Amino acid sequence: MNERNILVVAHAGRDDTVAAARRVIELLRAAGARPVLAVEDRTELSAVDEEFSTVDALGQEVGVDDLELAIVLGGDGTILRAAELVRGTHSAPVLGINMGHVGFLAEIERDAMVDAVERVIARDYVVEERLALAVRVKDALGDVVFETWALNEATVEKASRERMIEVVVEIDGRPLSSYGCDGMVISTPTGSTAYNFSAGGPVIWPTVEAIAVVPLSAHALFARPIVVSPDASVAIEVLERTSGTGILWCDGRRSHELPPGARVVVRRSSRPVRLARLHPTAFTDRLVRKLQLPVAGWRGAAT
What we know:
Elements: E1 5-9, H1 15-30, E2 34-37, H2 39-48, E3 56-57, E4 67-74, H3 76-85, E5 94-98, E6 108-109, H4 113-121, E7 126-130, E8 133-138, E9 144-150, E10 153-158, E11 165-171, E12 174-181, E13 183-187, H5 195-198, E14 211-216, E15 226-228, E16 234-238, E17 246-250, E18 254-258, E19 263-268, E20 273-277, H6 283-291
Helix pairs in contact: 1-4
Protein backbone atom coordinates (compact mmCIF):
# COMPACT_ATOMS: atom_id res chain seq x y z
CA MET A 1 0.00 0.00 0.00
CA ASN A 2 1.38 3.40 -0.97
CA GLU A 3 2.23 5.76 1.87
CA ARG A 4 -0.20 8.63 2.30
CA ASN A 5 1.77 11.88 2.34
CA ILE A 6 -0.14 14.80 3.84
CA LEU A 7 1.49 18.23 3.79
CA VAL A 8 0.87 20.36 6.88
CA VAL A 9 1.35 24.07 6.23
CA ALA A 10 1.74 26.31 9.28
CA HIS A 11 4.15 28.93 10.57
CA ALA A 12 5.63 29.42 14.01
CA GLY A 13 4.48 33.00 14.50
CA ARG A 14 1.47 32.14 16.67
CA ASP A 15 1.22 29.77 19.63
CA ASP A 16 -2.23 28.52 18.62
CA THR A 17 -0.99 27.65 15.14
CA VAL A 18 2.00 25.75 16.54
CA ALA A 19 -0.29 23.81 18.87
CA ALA A 20 -2.67 23.06 16.00
CA ALA A 21 0.19 21.81 13.80
CA ARG A 22 1.40 19.57 16.61
CA ARG A 23 -2.10 18.11 17.02
CA VAL A 24 -2.66 17.56 13.29
CA ILE A 25 0.68 15.75 12.98
CA GLU A 26 -0.22 13.52 15.94
CA LEU A 27 -3.59 12.65 14.39
CA LEU A 28 -2.07 11.88 10.99
CA ARG A 29 0.59 9.60 12.47
CA ALA A 30 -1.98 7.81 14.65
CA ALA A 31 -4.00 7.09 11.50
CA GLY A 32 -0.98 5.70 9.66
CA ALA A 33 -0.46 8.67 7.36
CA ARG A 34 2.86 10.43 6.80
CA PRO A 35 2.89 14.14 7.76
CA VAL A 36 5.16 16.38 5.69
CA LEU A 37 6.37 19.95 6.31
CA ALA A 38 7.86 22.52 3.96
CA VAL A 39 11.57 22.98 4.70
CA GLU A 40 11.07 26.57 5.87
CA ASP A 41 8.16 25.59 8.12
CA ARG A 42 10.08 22.69 9.63
CA THR A 43 13.03 24.93 10.45
CA GLU A 44 10.84 27.58 12.10
CA LEU A 45 8.64 25.11 13.99
CA SER A 46 11.62 23.08 15.18
CA ALA A 47 13.03 26.19 16.81
CA VAL A 48 9.88 26.25 18.95
CA ASP A 49 9.52 22.49 19.49
CA GLU A 50 12.24 19.98 18.54
CA GLU A 51 9.59 17.32 17.86
CA PHE A 52 8.86 19.00 14.51
CA SER A 53 12.39 18.11 13.35
CA THR A 54 11.27 14.46 13.07
CA VAL A 55 8.75 15.32 10.34
CA ASP A 56 9.82 14.63 6.73
CA ALA A 57 10.47 17.65 4.52
CA LEU A 58 8.89 18.49 1.19
CA GLY A 59 11.41 18.34 -1.61
CA GLN A 60 13.79 16.22 0.45
CA GLU A 61 12.18 13.04 1.76
CA VAL A 62 8.89 13.60 -0.13
CA GLY A 63 8.38 15.01 -3.63
CA VAL A 64 5.59 17.45 -4.47
CA ASP A 65 3.93 14.99 -6.86
CA ASP A 66 3.79 12.39 -4.07
CA LEU A 67 1.47 14.51 -1.92
CA GLU A 68 -2.10 13.39 -1.43
CA LEU A 69 -3.40 16.59 0.16
CA ALA A 70 -2.30 19.70 2.05
CA ILE A 71 -3.84 20.72 5.37
CA VAL A 72 -3.34 24.44 5.89
CA LEU A 73 -3.48 26.08 9.30
CA GLY A 74 -3.86 29.81 8.77
CA GLY A 75 -5.65 32.50 6.82
CA ASP A 76 -5.87 33.20 3.10
CA GLY A 77 -2.21 34.23 2.86
CA THR A 78 -1.09 30.85 4.21
CA ILE A 79 -3.46 29.06 1.83
CA LEU A 80 -1.96 30.98 -1.10
CA ARG A 81 1.49 29.87 0.07
CA ALA A 82 0.28 26.28 0.28
CA ALA A 83 -1.11 26.45 -3.26
CA GLU A 84 2.37 27.51 -4.37
CA LEU A 85 4.02 24.66 -2.43
CA VAL A 86 1.82 21.91 -3.91
CA ARG A 87 1.88 23.19 -7.49
CA GLY A 88 3.33 20.28 -9.40
CA THR A 89 2.43 18.00 -12.29
CA HIS A 90 -0.61 16.78 -10.37
CA SER A 91 -1.25 19.44 -7.74
CA ALA A 92 -2.61 18.10 -4.46
CA PRO A 93 -5.86 19.61 -3.19
CA VAL A 94 -5.62 22.16 -0.38
CA LEU A 95 -7.83 22.07 2.73
CA GLY A 96 -7.82 25.30 4.73
CA ILE A 97 -8.48 25.43 8.48
CA ASN A 98 -9.01 29.09 9.32
CA MET A 99 -6.67 30.41 12.00
CA GLY A 100 -6.85 33.98 10.73
CA HIS A 101 -9.62 36.54 10.43
CA VAL A 102 -11.68 36.61 7.24
CA GLY A 103 -10.34 33.42 5.64
CA PHE A 104 -12.41 33.31 2.45
CA LEU A 105 -10.45 30.33 1.12
CA ALA A 106 -10.56 28.32 4.35
CA GLU A 107 -13.05 25.49 4.42
CA ILE A 108 -13.61 25.21 8.17
CA GLU A 109 -12.89 26.94 11.47
CA ARG A 110 -10.33 25.75 14.01
CA ASP A 111 -12.86 24.16 16.38
CA ALA A 112 -13.64 21.50 13.73
CA MET A 113 -9.99 20.61 13.14
CA VAL A 114 -10.08 17.07 14.55
CA ASP A 115 -13.15 16.18 12.49
CA ALA A 116 -11.45 17.63 9.41
CA VAL A 117 -8.38 15.41 9.82
CA GLU A 118 -10.61 12.37 10.32
CA ARG A 119 -12.47 13.24 7.11
CA VAL A 120 -9.15 13.59 5.27
CA ILE A 121 -8.06 10.15 6.48
CA ALA A 122 -11.38 8.70 5.34
CA ARG A 123 -11.05 10.54 2.00
CA ASP A 124 -14.47 12.02 2.79
CA TYR A 125 -14.18 15.26 0.84
CA VAL A 126 -14.80 16.64 -2.62
CA VAL A 127 -12.32 18.56 -4.75
CA GLU A 128 -13.28 21.91 -6.25
CA GLU A 129 -11.17 23.27 -9.10
CA ARG A 130 -10.55 27.02 -9.21
CA LEU A 131 -9.46 28.97 -12.27
CA ALA A 132 -5.85 30.14 -12.07
CA LEU A 133 -3.92 32.59 -14.25
CA ALA A 134 -0.82 31.99 -16.34
CA VAL A 135 1.30 35.16 -16.42
CA ARG A 136 4.11 36.09 -18.78
CA VAL A 137 6.27 39.20 -18.93
CA LYS A 138 7.78 40.21 -22.27
CA ASP A 139 10.41 42.85 -22.79
CA ALA A 140 10.30 45.63 -25.38
CA LEU A 141 11.69 43.19 -27.99
CA GLY A 142 8.92 40.65 -27.34
CA ASP A 143 11.11 38.10 -25.56
CA VAL A 144 9.60 36.29 -22.55
CA VAL A 145 11.69 37.27 -19.51
CA PHE A 146 9.51 35.99 -16.66
CA GLU A 147 6.73 33.44 -16.19
CA THR A 148 4.58 32.69 -13.18
CA TRP A 149 0.96 32.06 -12.17
CA ALA A 150 -1.70 33.40 -9.81
CA LEU A 151 -4.74 32.09 -7.98
CA ASN A 152 -6.13 35.44 -6.79
CA GLU A 153 -4.76 38.12 -9.06
CA ALA A 154 -1.95 39.56 -11.13
CA THR A 155 -1.41 43.28 -10.60
CA VAL A 156 0.63 45.76 -12.57
CA GLU A 157 1.48 48.61 -10.22
CA LYS A 158 3.58 51.73 -10.15
CA ALA A 159 6.93 51.20 -8.48
CA SER A 160 7.25 54.78 -7.24
CA ARG A 161 4.75 56.35 -4.88
CA GLU A 162 5.17 59.80 -6.43
CA ARG A 163 4.39 58.87 -10.04
CA MET A 164 1.54 57.28 -11.95
CA ILE A 165 2.18 54.47 -14.36
CA GLU A 166 0.99 54.79 -17.96
CA VAL A 167 -0.38 51.61 -19.48
CA VAL A 168 -2.53 50.41 -22.35
CA VAL A 169 -4.90 47.47 -21.91
CA GLU A 170 -5.38 44.93 -24.67
CA ILE A 171 -8.08 42.25 -24.84
CA ASP A 172 -7.65 39.36 -27.28
CA GLY A 173 -5.10 41.23 -29.35
CA ARG A 174 -7.10 44.46 -29.65
CA PRO A 175 -6.38 47.69 -27.73
CA LEU A 176 -9.08 48.72 -25.25
CA SER A 177 -7.83 51.93 -23.62
CA SER A 178 -4.79 53.63 -22.15
CA TYR A 179 -4.67 54.78 -18.55
CA GLY A 180 -2.61 56.96 -16.29
CA CYS A 181 -3.15 55.11 -13.05
CA ASP A 182 -1.71 53.52 -9.92
CA GLY A 183 -2.02 50.14 -11.61
CA MET A 184 -4.30 47.43 -12.97
CA VAL A 185 -5.70 44.35 -11.22
CA ILE A 186 -6.43 41.21 -13.25
CA SER A 187 -8.47 38.95 -11.00
CA THR A 188 -9.92 35.46 -10.96
CA PRO A 189 -13.31 34.72 -9.34
CA THR A 190 -11.41 33.36 -6.34
CA GLY A 191 -9.52 36.65 -6.04
CA SER A 192 -12.62 38.78 -6.55
CA THR A 193 -13.07 39.06 -2.76
CA ALA A 194 -9.41 40.06 -2.27
CA TYR A 195 -7.54 42.98 -3.91
CA ASN A 196 -10.19 43.20 -6.65
CA PHE A 197 -12.87 43.80 -4.00
CA SER A 198 -10.83 46.51 -2.27
CA ALA A 199 -10.27 48.23 -5.63
CA GLY A 200 -14.00 48.41 -6.37
CA GLY A 201 -14.18 45.40 -8.66
CA PRO A 202 -17.14 43.01 -8.81
CA VAL A 203 -17.59 39.99 -6.55
CA ILE A 204 -17.69 36.98 -8.88
CA TRP A 205 -19.19 33.70 -7.72
CA PRO A 206 -16.60 30.87 -7.87
CA THR A 207 -18.86 28.88 -10.20
CA VAL A 208 -18.67 31.70 -12.78
CA GLU A 209 -15.63 31.36 -15.00
CA ALA A 210 -14.43 34.85 -15.88
CA ILE A 211 -11.54 37.29 -15.52
CA ALA A 212 -11.99 40.79 -14.07
CA VAL A 213 -9.83 43.77 -15.08
CA VAL A 214 -9.91 46.68 -12.64
CA PRO A 215 -8.04 50.03 -12.95
CA LEU A 216 -6.50 51.44 -9.78
CA SER A 217 -7.08 55.19 -9.26
CA ALA A 218 -7.16 55.81 -13.01
CA HIS A 219 -7.17 59.28 -14.58
CA ALA A 220 -9.36 58.30 -17.53
CA LEU A 221 -12.94 58.73 -18.72
CA PHE A 222 -13.30 54.97 -19.08
CA ALA A 223 -12.13 53.65 -15.73
CA ARG A 224 -14.76 51.06 -14.90
CA PRO A 225 -14.01 47.43 -14.04
CA ILE A 226 -14.67 45.01 -16.89
CA VAL A 227 -15.32 41.27 -16.89
CA VAL A 228 -14.08 39.19 -19.82
CA SER A 229 -14.21 35.58 -20.94
CA PRO A 230 -12.09 33.09 -18.99
CA ASP A 231 -10.42 32.24 -22.28
CA ALA A 232 -9.56 35.84 -23.13
CA SER A 233 -5.98 37.05 -23.36
CA VAL A 234 -5.45 40.20 -21.29
CA ALA A 235 -2.30 42.23 -21.90
CA ILE A 236 -1.07 45.26 -19.97
CA GLU A 237 1.69 47.19 -21.70
CA VAL A 238 3.78 49.76 -19.82
CA LEU A 239 3.99 52.65 -22.25
CA GLU A 240 7.38 53.99 -23.26
CA ARG A 241 6.39 57.46 -22.08
CA THR A 242 6.06 56.20 -18.50
CA SER A 243 8.43 57.94 -16.11
CA GLY A 244 10.02 55.32 -13.90
CA THR A 245 9.15 51.63 -13.72
CA GLY A 246 6.26 49.42 -12.79
CA ILE A 247 6.14 46.14 -10.94
CA LEU A 248 4.16 42.94 -11.42
CA TRP A 249 2.80 41.18 -8.33
CA CYS A 250 1.07 37.79 -8.38
CA ASP A 251 -0.93 36.91 -5.27
CA GLY A 252 1.27 39.38 -3.39
CA ARG A 253 3.99 36.69 -3.36
CA ARG A 254 5.86 36.71 -6.68
CA SER A 255 7.06 39.89 -8.36
CA HIS A 256 9.00 41.19 -11.35
CA GLU A 257 10.15 44.69 -12.34
CA LEU A 258 8.48 46.25 -15.39
CA PRO A 259 10.53 48.87 -17.23
CA PRO A 260 8.89 51.06 -19.91
CA GLY A 261 8.01 48.88 -22.89
CA ALA A 262 7.39 45.77 -20.80
CA ARG A 263 4.27 43.77 -21.53
CA VAL A 264 2.36 41.52 -19.14
CA VAL A 265 0.20 38.85 -20.80
CA VAL A 266 -2.36 37.04 -18.65
CA ARG A 267 -4.35 34.00 -19.71
CA ARG A 268 -6.20 31.18 -18.05
CA SER A 269 -3.76 28.58 -16.73
CA SER A 270 -4.13 25.02 -17.96
CA ARG A 271 -3.60 23.94 -14.33
CA PRO A 272 -6.36 24.98 -11.92
CA VAL A 273 -5.87 25.15 -8.17
CA ARG A 274 -7.67 22.34 -6.36
CA LEU A 275 -9.43 23.03 -3.06
CA ALA A 276 -10.71 20.25 -0.80
CA ARG A 277 -14.22 20.83 0.51
CA LEU A 278 -15.90 19.02 3.42
CA HIS A 279 -19.22 20.86 3.45
CA PRO A 280 -21.21 22.03 0.41
CA THR A 281 -21.84 25.63 1.50
CA ALA A 282 -23.56 28.21 -0.69
CA PHE A 283 -21.16 31.02 -1.62
CA THR A 284 -23.87 33.52 -0.64
CA ASP A 285 -23.74 32.18 2.93
CA ARG A 286 -19.95 32.34 2.94
CA LEU A 287 -20.05 35.95 1.71
CA VAL A 288 -22.59 36.98 4.35
CA ARG A 289 -20.66 35.25 7.14
CA LYS A 290 -17.17 36.43 6.21
CA LEU A 291 -18.16 40.05 5.50
CA GLN A 292 -20.79 40.16 8.25
CA LEU A 293 -23.38 41.47 5.80
CA PRO A 294 -26.72 42.64 7.27
CA VAL A 295 -29.53 40.19 6.44
CA ALA A 296 -31.83 40.84 9.41
CA GLY A 297 -35.46 40.97 8.32
CA TRP A 298 -35.14 38.39 5.55
CA ARG A 299 -38.24 36.19 5.73
CA GLY A 300 -37.07 33.46 3.38
CA ALA A 301 -37.79 32.72 -0.26
CA ALA A 302 -41.43 32.63 -1.28
CA THR A 303 -42.81 29.11 -1.73
